[in-house]
Structure formats: structure tokens, C-alpha cells
Amino acid sequence: MKLFIDTADLADIETIAGWGVLQGVTTNPTLLGKVEGEADDIYRRVCELVDGPVSAEVVADARGDMIEEGKRLAAIHENIVVKLPMSAEGLSATSTLAAEGIRVNMTLVFTPPQALLAAASGAAFVSPFVGRFDDIGHDGLECLRTIVEALEPSMYDTEVITASVRGPLHVTEAARMGAHIATIPPKVFYQMLQHPLTAAGIETFTADAEARKARAAK
Ligand code: E4P
Fold this sequence. Notes:
By secondary structure, this protein is of the alpha/beta class. It has helices at residues 10-17, 29-33, 39-49, 63-74, 88-99, 112-121, 130-135, 140-151, 168-176, 186-193, 196-217, and strands at 2-6, 24-26, 54-57, 80-85, 104-109, 125-128, 159-162, 181-184. An 8-stranded parallel β-barrel has the order 1-2-3-4-5-6-7-8, surrounded by 7 helices. The N and C termini lie far apart (51 Å).
């Protein structure tokens, strides 16, 4: 499973890209609202930091405006993927953009039928929101599993992006069920990295190496 980062924070992207684990980036208007700077400049810098798909979300809600905004975003960099919301207008705009070779990430997907519609419209990526589905008392991971299973035998090449990830367990389970991608907030990357026994082990090995060096120096 490929790992994307779900943020518009350039410092976080640069740091975690430095781990060598990132294959893409997703942003949304809320994430962009948390950082300073012009959106287009941020997208350009993100594309310099990570060599992979970078989702930039359209805010227009009418088909024609979505297409226009999507084309403008796609022109920023060849790695930009246009993010469109799941809706009749979004599906229609996706089919037009896809026919022109522009990749679309269909976002705010909560059911397998929505995912099938996204795939049929030509979306390159579909983003089921696991955490937000959990928040309203549903089983986000089970929904993700059904979407992965439903799209797997289909004739579409649509990749499933596990979105709205809230913790390392979401990532592990998404990988186990065969999701193509998980887009992960920076905080969750750090949770994935750390374990108290790893930290304790490093401390012990360092102390033992120092002790050996001290004995040899006597
Ligand atoms: C996906 O592309 C979205 O940006 C994101 O995963 C939304 O998740 P949230 O529930 O953390 O806002």
C-alpha cells in the first residue's frame, strides 16, 4: 500500500518526505486554511517536495465551474490531481476532465455505490472517509473493505485512497484489506513511527556501546 500525507503544512511534508516513505499528498480546503500563503504556491512547493500525485480540491459547485477550476489546478504541475466532491455535478465534471487526461480524486465517499459511480465516471482515485464514518457510529473500516472488494474485480483502474485516517490501526487495516493508498495526517505518521520498546531498546544499546568503549579506553 502506498503512503500519502494528508496535510498542506510544508514543514511536515518536508520532514516526513525526508523519511523516504511518501508517494503522494492530499490536501483539502480545511487543511489549506490552516497554513499561510497562496494556494497555488503551496501546491507548487508540495510538488517539489514529493514526486507523486498531489490532490488539490476544487471549491466550485456547478459542473462548468468545477471543470474550469479543475483545468486551472491541473495546469499548475503535472502531478496535480483534481479533487472533486461526490455529487452528480462532481461525477459529470470528472468524466469531462478524465476524457481530457486530467486525473480526478473523488472525495467525500461513504458508500460502495458512491465508489462505483466514481470509478465509472473515470475517477483515477476514490477517497472513502473512514474516520468521519466512524464518528457517526458506522464502521468506517468495514465500509472501506466493501469498497476495495467491490472495485477489485471491476474493469476500472481506480485506486482506493483510505482517507480520514485517525490512527495507525486504520492504516494497518487498510493495508490488510488491500486498499491501494492511505493518506495519513502527520500526527499519525509519528504515532506509526514510535514504540516505547523501540525507544527503550535504542537507549540500552547506546548505553551498552558507550560502556564497552569506556572499558576499551582503560
Ligand atoms: C482526504 O483527502 C481528506 O483530506 C481527509 O482525509 C479528511 O479527513 P478528516 O476527517 O481528518 O478531515
